[in-house]
Amino acid sequence: MKLNVRLSGVRSRRLREGGSRASARVGWRTVWFESPDVELRASVEGFCGAAWLAALKRGRGLTAPHDVDAVWWSNVQELHSQWQDRGDFPRGLPRGVRVVDSAAAPRQRRTALFFSCGADSFYSLFAGPIRPQALVFGHGFDIPLCDRQRGKAAEEAVKSVARELSLEAISLSTNYRAHPILRRANWGQVYGAAMAAAGHALGGEMDQILISTGESSPGHDSSWGADWRTVHLWSSAAVRFVRAGGVDSRLTKTRAIAGHPLVQQRLRVCWQNTGLLENCSRCDKCLCMMAMLEYCGSLRAFCTFDHSESLLDRLDRLPRTGYLANYTELLAQGLDRPLRTAIKRLLSRSPSPAQQRLAAKSVVLRGAQLEGPIGAGVTPPARIATRRVLRSTPS
Asked: Residue 30 pairs with which residues in a beta bridge?
């Protein structure tokens, strides 16, 4: 039987070189968040939530002998209940916690948005329900902490957007994904909890944190990144988390932001690129976004993509795609014949058998989980929709 992971030593301090650090021991190693811009606070709720979810995903529990806020504890119980209702999720709330009624600090009414210069981020910024006072960039989430070159470039891009819009820019860094225990959990499943931990650390400066949620549509597991159904359940009496961007599809979001000059100058969807441009313009994620921008009629206006080769040729060189639902929705809109034909060729060779088996086990459609292998007769919704579109769309 696996031993519980223990959370201890939650504290914060100012750094000698400037800025501050919030840290905690998870197991035998320290996980930390640092910022040169603001004073971070030691939040038991933030570290407990992030460590708890990662431990559960590794088949272990969490022991956290600390006082926790009653509002946060009630939310975590609801969160656990919702996960159980979906099935195939380990049971077990954090053990050893002492629930206390924390007096909420006076509301500062300051809102921050986690921002990466991606499509979801820009959509939340320009079309979200609340305008933030600050944009927060986190190095160590999508971009590895050791990748200083890309981290610095992405940080500067976020700061430039903040300057253009007269917003505050806050930089964070974390070793979360380098921690021996936490890094073993599926990043796509624990990403939201890690962002919530960073948000709680900002609680001394901000009392409301906006987190962009991914789309929810057939073929998309919305647990990737931040789950639109549960983002608010990471809240405490001191920090409120708000879903930004809604559950609109990637194509809907792209349409909304494609004509904005700032987006055209700074859009960054690629986390693989090491070149001078923000996007490699060759990977699956880049090409999917480029196809959507081409449909919107604004691809050439985006200076963050490489336009030296034809989009059609690049699509034909892509062996397969993981963005079945995105391309299926795009086909249903009506495209120019060359682009439509290239996308149909790409879909005809996607996904691989391994991807199909994975999709059959993990695809979640608004809370309803599909289970069983493809051979048992379960076909991912995106694949079903793709076949229908391929049959109904003229060549």
From this structure: 25
Out of 182-186, 262-266, 381-385, give the one with best mean pLDDT: 262-266
Q: What is the pLDDT, as a whole number, of residue 217?
A: 43
Q: Other CB atoms closer than 10 Å to residue 130's CB: what's the count?
A: 12
Contacts of 118 (CB under 8 A, 6+ apart): 212, 267, 268, 269
* pTM for this entry: 0.84
Quickly count: other Cβ atoms within 10 Å of residue 394's Cβ: 6
Confidence (pLDDT) at 351? 66
pLDDT digits (tens, 9 = 90+) for 90-137: 778 999 999 998 765 556 679 999 999 999 999 999 998 889 999 999
Residues in the chain, total: 395
CB of 219 closer than 8 Å to CB of 99 = no
Sign of the alpha-carbon torsion through 199, 201, 203, 206: negative
Residue 114's pLDDT is 95
Q: Whole-angstrom Cα distance, residue 33 to residue 43?
A: 11
Compute how many other C-beta atoms are within 10 angstroms of the C-beta atom of residue 42.
19
**Pairing mode, strands 111-114 and 134-139:** parallel
Tokens of 149: 């070159």
SS3 content of the chain, % helix, strand, coil (to 5): 40, 15, 40
Nearest to 164 by CA among 115, 218, 217, 208: 115
> What's the alpha-carbon Rg for the chain, to the nearest Å?
21
The rounded Cα 23 to chain-centroid distance in angstroms is 22
Helix 284-296 vs helix 324-331: crossing angle, to nearest 10? 20
Neighbours of 250 (CB within 10 A): 23
The fraction of the chain above a pLDDT of 70, given in percent, is 81
Q: In whole angstroms, what separates CA 229 from the centre of its chain?
A: 14
Q: Chain-centre distance of CA 322, in angstroms?
A: 16
To 10 degrees, what angle do helices 44-57 and 187-201 make? 170
Q: Is the dihedral of CA 255, 261, 266, 270 positive or negative?
A: positive
What whole-number distance in Å separates Cα of residue 341 and Cα of residue 355?
23
Q: Going by C-beta distance under 8 Å and a sequence separation of 6 or more, which residues neighbour residue 20? A: 12, 13, 14, 34, 35, 38, 39, 40
Q: Which residue is it, tokens 């229908």?
A: 388
